Protein backbone atom coordinates (compact mmCIF):
# COMPACT_ATOMS: atom_id res chain seq x y z
CA UNK A 1 0.00 0.00 0.00
CA UNK A 2 1.61 3.28 -1.09
CA UNK A 3 0.82 6.84 -0.08
CA UNK A 4 0.66 8.58 3.27
CA UNK A 5 -2.21 8.57 5.75
CA UNK A 6 -2.74 10.89 8.71
CA UNK A 7 -2.28 9.16 12.07
CA UNK A 8 -3.13 10.59 15.51
CA UNK A 9 -1.38 9.36 18.66
CA UNK A 10 -4.04 8.11 21.08
CA UNK A 11 -1.99 6.10 23.59
CA UNK A 12 1.51 5.43 24.88
CA UNK A 13 2.60 2.61 27.19
CA UNK A 14 6.02 1.97 28.71
CA UNK A 15 7.20 -1.60 28.12
CA UNK A 16 10.84 -1.32 29.20
CA UNK A 17 13.05 1.60 30.23
CA UNK A 18 13.67 2.25 26.52
CA UNK A 19 10.72 0.54 24.82
CA UNK A 20 7.29 2.00 24.18
CA UNK A 21 4.01 0.83 22.72
CA UNK A 22 2.37 3.62 20.70
CA UNK A 23 -1.22 3.42 19.48
CA UNK A 24 -2.33 5.57 16.55
CA UNK A 25 -5.80 6.16 15.16
CA UNK A 26 -5.56 5.87 11.38
CA UNK A 27 -8.80 6.62 9.50
CA UNK A 28 -9.64 4.16 6.72
CA UNK A 29 -6.79 1.82 7.66
CA UNK A 30 -7.00 -1.15 5.23
CA UNK A 31 -5.84 -3.77 7.74
CA UNK A 32 -2.58 -5.69 7.81
CA UNK A 33 -0.97 -9.08 8.31
CA UNK A 34 1.01 -10.01 11.43
CA UNK A 35 4.68 -9.34 10.73
CA UNK A 36 4.16 -6.29 8.53
CA UNK A 37 5.46 -2.79 9.32
CA UNK A 38 4.82 0.85 8.46
CA UNK A 39 6.87 3.90 7.65
CA UNK A 40 6.27 6.85 9.95
CA UNK A 41 6.91 10.38 8.67
CA UNK A 42 7.33 13.41 10.90
CA UNK A 43 7.36 16.95 9.52
CA UNK A 44 8.87 19.85 11.49
CA UNK A 45 7.54 23.39 11.41
CA UNK A 46 10.35 24.38 9.04
CA UNK A 47 9.39 21.64 6.59
CA UNK A 48 12.16 19.19 7.53
CA UNK A 49 10.95 15.59 7.28
CA UNK A 50 12.22 12.34 8.77
CA UNK A 51 10.99 8.83 7.97
CA UNK A 52 11.54 5.66 10.00
CA UNK A 53 10.14 2.12 9.85
CA UNK A 54 8.39 0.46 12.80
CA UNK A 55 6.79 -2.96 13.22
CA UNK A 56 3.08 -3.39 13.84
CA UNK A 57 2.45 -5.10 17.16
CA UNK A 58 -0.94 -6.64 16.53
CA UNK A 59 -4.15 -6.69 14.53
CA UNK A 60 -5.81 -3.36 13.83
CA UNK A 61 -8.73 -2.62 16.15
CA UNK A 62 -11.34 -0.05 15.10
CA UNK A 63 -8.85 1.75 12.87
CA UNK A 64 -6.17 1.89 15.58
CA UNK A 65 -2.71 0.44 15.01
CA UNK A 66 -0.04 -0.30 17.61
CA UNK A 67 3.67 0.21 16.96
CA UNK A 68 6.68 -0.80 19.01
CA UNK A 69 9.32 1.94 19.33
CA UNK A 70 12.79 1.39 20.79
CA UNK A 71 14.70 4.53 21.68
CA UNK A 72 18.12 4.73 20.08
CA UNK A 73 20.88 6.84 21.71
CA UNK A 74 21.11 10.00 19.65
CA UNK A 75 18.14 8.99 17.52
CA UNK A 76 16.25 12.07 16.41
CA UNK A 77 13.03 10.20 15.63
CA UNK A 78 12.82 7.27 18.05
CA UNK A 79 13.36 9.32 21.21
CA UNK A 80 10.84 11.94 20.12
CA UNK A 81 8.18 9.37 19.26
CA UNK A 82 8.83 7.32 22.38
CA UNK A 83 8.69 10.10 24.96
CA UNK A 84 7.94 13.54 23.53
CA UNK A 85 5.25 13.31 20.85
CA UNK A 86 2.12 14.60 22.64
CA UNK A 87 -0.97 12.41 22.79
CA UNK A 88 -3.31 13.86 20.18
CA UNK A 89 -0.47 14.91 17.87
CA UNK A 90 -0.49 13.83 14.25
CA UNK A 91 2.10 12.14 12.09
CA UNK A 92 1.82 10.31 8.78
CA UNK A 93 2.09 6.59 8.12
CA UNK A 94 2.59 4.60 4.94
CA UNK A 95 1.70 0.95 4.74
CA UNK A 96 1.18 -1.76 5.56
CA UNK A 97 4.54 -2.82 4.12
CA UNK A 98 6.18 -6.22 3.65
CA UNK A 99 4.77 -9.51 2.44
CA UNK A 100 7.52 -12.05 3.20
CA UNK A 101 7.91 -11.86 6.98
CA UNK A 102 4.24 -12.59 7.71
CA UNK A 103 2.17 -15.38 9.23
CA UNK A 104 -1.37 -16.29 8.19
CA UNK A 105 -3.71 -18.27 10.47
CA UNK A 106 -4.56 -20.73 7.69
CA UNK A 107 -0.94 -21.90 7.62
CA UNK A 108 -0.75 -25.12 9.62
CA UNK A 109 2.99 -25.81 9.94
CA UNK A 110 4.53 -25.54 13.43
CA UNK A 111 6.08 -22.12 14.03
CA UNK A 112 9.27 -21.21 15.88
CA UNK A 113 9.67 -17.52 16.69
CA UNK A 114 13.11 -16.24 17.70
CA UNK A 115 13.50 -12.64 18.82
CA UNK A 116 16.32 -10.40 19.94
CA UNK A 117 15.29 -7.40 22.04
CA UNK A 118 12.70 -5.18 20.34
CA UNK A 119 12.64 -7.69 17.47
CA UNK A 120 9.86 -9.40 19.40
CA UNK A 121 7.32 -6.78 18.23
CA UNK A 122 6.27 -8.36 14.90
CA UNK A 123 6.36 -11.79 16.54
CA UNK A 124 3.94 -10.58 19.23
CA UNK A 125 1.66 -9.59 16.35
CA UNK A 126 1.73 -13.22 15.20
CA UNK A 127 1.01 -14.50 18.70
CA UNK A 128 -1.90 -12.10 19.06
CA UNK A 129 -3.33 -13.14 15.70
CA UNK A 130 -3.08 -16.78 16.73
CA UNK A 131 -5.06 -16.09 19.90
CA UNK A 132 -7.59 -13.82 18.18
CA UNK A 133 -8.42 -16.39 15.49
CA UNK A 134 -8.40 -19.40 17.79
CA UNK A 135 -5.76 -21.13 15.67
CA UNK A 136 -4.23 -24.26 17.20
CA UNK A 137 -1.01 -24.12 15.18
CA UNK A 138 1.91 -25.17 17.45
CA UNK A 139 3.94 -22.09 18.38
CA UNK A 140 7.16 -21.70 20.34
CA UNK A 141 9.11 -18.54 21.18
CA UNK A 142 12.77 -18.09 22.07
CA UNK A 143 13.30 -14.55 23.29
CA UNK A 144 16.81 -13.18 23.83
CA UNK A 145 17.29 -10.06 25.97
CA UNK A 146 20.15 -8.54 27.94
CA UNK A 147 18.41 -8.75 31.31
CA UNK A 148 14.91 -9.26 32.75
CA UNK A 149 14.13 -5.54 32.64
CA UNK A 150 14.44 -5.57 28.84
CA UNK A 151 11.56 -7.99 28.19
CA UNK A 152 8.83 -6.47 26.03
CA UNK A 153 5.23 -7.59 26.68
CA UNK A 154 6.42 -9.82 29.53
CA UNK A 155 3.07 -10.35 31.29
CA UNK A 156 1.35 -11.07 27.99
CA UNK A 157 3.98 -13.60 26.93
CA UNK A 158 3.97 -15.32 30.31
CA UNK A 159 0.18 -15.54 30.23
CA UNK A 160 -0.04 -17.21 26.82
CA UNK A 161 -0.38 -20.83 27.91
CA UNK A 162 -0.67 -22.02 24.30
CA UNK A 163 2.90 -21.03 23.43
CA UNK A 164 6.16 -22.56 24.68
CA UNK A 165 8.34 -19.61 25.64
CA UNK A 166 12.04 -19.68 26.53
CA UNK A 167 13.93 -16.59 27.66
CA UNK A 168 17.63 -16.28 26.94
CA UNK A 169 19.44 -13.66 29.02
CA UNK A 170 22.73 -12.50 27.54
CA UNK A 171 24.10 -10.16 30.25
CA UNK A 172 22.25 -10.73 33.52
CA UNK A 173 19.82 -13.53 34.36
CA UNK A 174 17.31 -13.79 37.23
CA UNK A 175 18.63 -15.41 40.39
CA UNK A 176 16.52 -18.55 39.82
CA UNK A 177 17.57 -18.97 36.17
CA UNK A 178 19.74 -22.10 35.78
CA UNK A 179 21.07 -21.10 32.38
CA UNK A 180 24.12 -18.80 32.63
CA UNK A 181 23.98 -15.54 30.67
CA UNK A 182 25.10 -15.80 27.05
CA UNK A 183 23.98 -15.64 23.47
CA UNK A 184 21.50 -18.09 21.95
CA UNK A 185 22.94 -21.57 21.40
CA UNK A 186 21.79 -24.76 19.71
CA UNK A 187 20.71 -26.06 23.12
CA UNK A 188 18.22 -23.19 23.43
CA UNK A 189 16.51 -24.37 20.25
CA UNK A 190 16.54 -28.05 21.20
CA UNK A 191 13.14 -29.70 21.10
CA UNK A 192 11.49 -26.70 19.44
CA UNK A 193 12.48 -27.34 15.84
CA UNK A 194 11.37 -30.08 13.45
CA UNK A 195 13.59 -29.42 10.41
CA UNK A 196 11.59 -29.38 7.19
CA UNK A 197 8.26 -29.04 9.01
CA UNK A 198 8.74 -25.95 11.17
CA UNK A 199 8.62 -22.44 9.77
CA UNK A 200 11.08 -20.20 11.62
CA UNK A 201 10.78 -16.44 11.98
CA UNK A 202 13.84 -14.57 13.29
CA UNK A 203 13.83 -10.85 14.09
CA UNK A 204 16.41 -8.64 15.79
CA UNK A 205 19.70 -6.82 15.21
CA UNK A 206 21.67 -7.92 12.16
CA UNK A 207 24.36 -9.82 14.10
CA UNK A 208 21.74 -11.66 16.15
CA UNK A 209 19.75 -12.67 13.08
CA UNK A 210 22.82 -13.95 11.24
CA UNK A 211 23.93 -15.95 14.29
CA UNK A 212 20.52 -17.56 14.82
CA UNK A 213 20.03 -18.30 11.12
CA UNK A 214 23.38 -20.11 11.22
CA UNK A 215 22.23 -22.22 14.17
CA UNK A 216 19.04 -23.14 12.35
CA UNK A 217 20.90 -24.15 9.20
CA UNK A 218 23.33 -26.23 11.27
CA UNK A 219 20.36 -27.96 12.90
CA UNK A 220 19.07 -29.02 9.48
CA UNK A 221 16.45 -26.34 8.89
CA UNK A 222 16.09 -25.62 5.13
CA UNK A 223 17.04 -22.04 4.27
CA UNK A 224 13.75 -21.48 2.45
CA UNK A 225 11.88 -22.14 5.71
CA UNK A 226 13.72 -19.41 7.62
CA UNK A 227 12.25 -15.94 7.37
CA UNK A 228 14.28 -13.07 8.78
CA UNK A 229 13.74 -9.40 9.60
CA UNK A 230 16.72 -7.38 10.79
CA UNK A 231 17.50 -3.84 11.90
CA UNK A 232 20.48 -1.74 12.89
UniProtKB/TrEMBL annotation:
Transmembrane feature ranges: none
Keywords assigned by UniProt, alphabetized: 2Fe-2S, Iron, Iron-sulfur, Metal-binding
Pfam families linked to this entry: FAD_binding_6, NAD_binding_1
Domain FAD-binding FR-type residues, every copy: 2-103
InterPro entries: Cbr1-like_FAD-bd_dom (IPR008333), FAD-bd_FR_type (IPR017927), Flavoprot_Pyr_Nucl_cyt_Rdtase (IPR001709), FNR_nucleotide-bd (IPR039261), MRET (IPR050415), OxRdtase_FAD/NAD-bd (IPR001433), Riboflavin_synthase-like_b-brl (IPR017938)
Cofactor: FAD
SUPFAM superfamilies in alphabetical order: Ferredoxin reductase-like, C-terminal NADP-linked domain (SSF52343), Riboflavin synthase domain-like (SSF63380)
Annotated protein name in UniProt: Ferredoxin reductase
